[in-house]
Design brief:
By secondary structure, this protein is mainly α. The protein is about 60% helix and about 10% strand. It contains 8 helices and 4 strands. A hairpin with a 6-residue loop joins strand 1 and strand 2. Helix 2 runs parallel beside helix 4, helix 3 crosses helix 4 and helix 4 packs antiparallel against helix 8. It starts with a helix and ends with a helix. About 25% of the residues are buried.
Length: about 160
C-alpha cells in the first residue's frame, strides 16, 4: 500500500525536484545488457560499439561512456507532471536514448542538448562529430522517448 501511495504522490506532484534513483538503477541494467550485446558483436571477447556521434568504431579498452542522448534531467523535467519516477526511468533508458560515445565527447557535452552543443563549431571539429549521424541519433531518441511515453500512458 505504501508503494502505491508513493507512486500517486510522485505522479501528482508536477513540481517535484529532479530525482535519479530509479533512472540510475535501470541505467545500470541497460548498460550491462548493452555490454553483453557488444561482446557478442565483437566476437573475440572484446566489446564492439559504434560511437553514436562520430560513427567511429569503439572497442573494449577505449575510453567510452554510455550516454543518454537526451539527458535524464531534461526528460525528467519534461514528464514529471505526467509520469512517476519509475516510468520516467523507463523513458530515459529506452533503447533509442541510450548509446555509447567517447568519454571526451560525453564530458564536453554534459547536460547540454546536442543541438546546442553542436552549434559550437569547435565542438564538432575537435571531436570529429558527424552532423548527419548525430542528427539522426537525436531524432531517433526523440521518437523513442515519444513512443515510450505514449506506451506508458496508454496502459493506464
Amino acid at each position: 500500500m505504501l508503494h502505491f501511495l508513493k507512486k500517486i504522490i510522485n505522479k501528482n506532484n508536477p513540481t517535484r525536484p529532479y530525482h535519479r534513483k530509479e533512472i540510475d538503477l535501470l541505467f545500470t541494467k541497460v548498460k550491462a545488457q548493452m555490454h553483453q550485446d557488444a561482446l557478442t558483436k565483437g566476437g573475440d571477447g572484446i566489446a564492439l560499439f559504434t560511437d553514436c556521434y562520430t560513427g567511429e568504431t569503439l572497442r573494449g579498452g577505449d575510453r567510452y561512456d554510455y550516454e543518454h542522448i537526451r539527458s535524464s534531467e531534461d526528460v525528467f523535467m519534461t514528464y514529471r507532471d505526467r509520469l512517476t519516477n519509475t516510468e520516467i526511468a523507463q523513458v530515459v533508458n529506452c533503447p533509442e536514448n541510450v548509446a555509447v560515445t567517447l568519454r571526451t565527447i560525453n564530458q564536453s557535452k554534459g547536460k547540454m542538448r546536442m543541438e546546442a552543443w553542436m552549434a559550437n563549431s569547435n565542438n564538432v571539429s575537435n571531436h570529429s562529430i558527424s552532423m548527419a549521424i548525430s542528427k539522426r541519433r537525436v531524432a531517433n531518441a526523440d521518437l523513442g522517448i515519444k513512443n515510450k511515453v505514449e506506451e506508458i500512458l496508454s496502459r493506464r
